[in-house]
Amino acid sequence: MTTTTPLPRPTRLSRLTAIAAFLWSLLALPIGLWQLLDPEHGPYAHDLYDPTIPLPAAVPDWTAPAALIAAGIGGLLIARARPSLWPLTALYAAVFGLLLTTITPISFAGYLAAFLIPIAAVVVPVLLARGTIARMVTAAAIAAVVVGLGVTGVVDYAAVGAFAADLGGTIAAMSGYLFAQVWTVAGAAIWTALTLQLLLRRRDGEPVPAWLAPENAAKWGRVAAWTAFACALPYGLVRMSWLTPWPYMGGPLGDELDLTTRVWGLLLGFAALGGGVLCLGLSQRWGERWPFWMFAVKGRPVPPMIAIVPGAIMAAVFTFMAVPMAATGIRQGAYDIVWSFPFWLWGPALGAATLAYAIRRGKVGTGVVR
Q1: Considering 15, 150, 269, 294, which has the largest number of Cβ atoms within 10 A of its Cβ?
Q2: Backbone angles phi, psi at 46, to 5 degrees
Q3: Does the predicted TM-score (pTM) go above 0.85?
């Protein structure tokens, strides 16, 4: 006997997605006008801007910003699209996610994650300690280690501060360009979410496919999570090789790397491998209940959105980076990028694992097949 439950009608999340699409489209107008009125200093005039599909030289400079403004106006009109208009929202997702993106967002995200690792190493243990006394002891121990590293000269905090200041200055100098790139990727994610919601709404009142049942989602979600974990290994291991006498990136690097670069390799490698482990959490018990070593919250249910939101964001970013990353590798003759940055598989696999997790945690309406 088979029983089915219809998918729910538009929810609060659907309305929020429509609002996000409207606001994103609204921002397209000033961004397009900025580039149109100041083509030499606009957000798309930066030296780092390297579009996946550059326009032919014969195309006038005003064409692209004018098209961007037109896309913004169109987005305002379809932000609250009916289900039958899902091809238009899918077109927005494809154009902004696969054709107009560059590798800048993923580079920025990677270095930001690497930069935050030392901060997390200091803050997280204190937060995980159970009880006021335990937190005070943990904080004191970490403070002693930090001071000791500085006194012994293992870490030059003056150099670290100077580096942080230089990094902040660089980011500030390219803030307009970075904002436009983040806006592009965010728009692709928003239009993708809106498209998925419209497609689900088209089946409102119809039986839910068997593959959306929680017990089936647990099976294919486990495969997707392990696939996403495997995709994190090439990049993580390549970066970690920078700590060895045989650093590799598209070929042996020999003694070309200085100490600072090797440390960045360590941090980037840990960021990638740590992200891969978190992918596994989408299919493991510790992804639903805090593990024993998280003393302050061990055994309690993990709030679903803590895993779903970052999982969905990174799945979208990885998927959208697949085309520009591959294009960059082909143009530069660095074909190893295709396997060391397998975003073409990593993004979809992480997205599937996140969807399965959301189904199992009751955040996506499903039917039960018996």
Answers
A1: 269
A2: -65, 150
A3: no
